[in-house]
């Protein structure tokens, strides 16, 4: 059994109502509940956190080793393109992570096409909506079973 941490960045608390053409109508609570169910079925525990504050996300990452987190799934949202602090935190704790984006960031504005995280990530899933989280969790479960 492993601990998996899901981190969600700014404005993801508005999922379901914010720009549904880009982000869909599924709420973050729906996504979290579904992921917890899937992780539990696979014999793992999963906790989810969302914050609009960069410093809070950094703190969640810093606490992850003390909570025996084996893997992180992160949607840094707007911090994808701006947060060296969050990148440095992920690098410092050296916990493998998968980067998830609901929309296809490469089909959007030019400033959204650069990620401070992708080169550190085990993998990146972009443009598949809420299903991207499920695919990330499936990859995490497979990687954990190979250890």
Automatic annotation (TrEMBL):
GO BP, sorted A to Z: quinate catabolic process
Gene3D superfamilies xrefs: Dehydroquinase, class II
Root EC class: lyase
InterPro entries registered for this protein in UniProt: DHquinase_II, DHquinase_II_CS, DHquinase_II_sf
Presence of keyword rRNA processing: no
EC number(s) recorded for this UniProt protein: 4.2.1.10
Pfam families attached to this UniProt entry: DHquinase_II
Keywords: Lyase
GO molecular function: 3-dehydroquinate dehydratase activity
PANTHER family per record: CATABOLIC 3-DEHYDROQUINASE (PTHR21272)
Protein name per Swiss-Prot or TrEMBL: 3-dehydroquinate dehydratase
Annotated source species: hydrothermal vent metagenome
